[in-house]
Amino acid sequence: xxxxxxxxxxxxxxxxxxxxxxxxxxxxxxxxxxxxxxxx
Length: 40
Description:
The protein has 1 helix and no strands. The chain has 40 residues and is an all-alpha fold. The longest helix is centred in the middle third of the chain and has 22 residues, at 9-30. It comes from human gut metagenome. Keywords: Cell projection, Cilium, Flagellum. This is Flagellar motor switch protein FliM.
């Protein structure tokens, strides 16, 4: 079984940037359904 570990600074930065991109991309398709303003 693999031991779990904390994320490195590089991994956290990549994850944060991906989440920001994802939330920004979700705003466009949902704008006709509901107004959203995602914040991390």
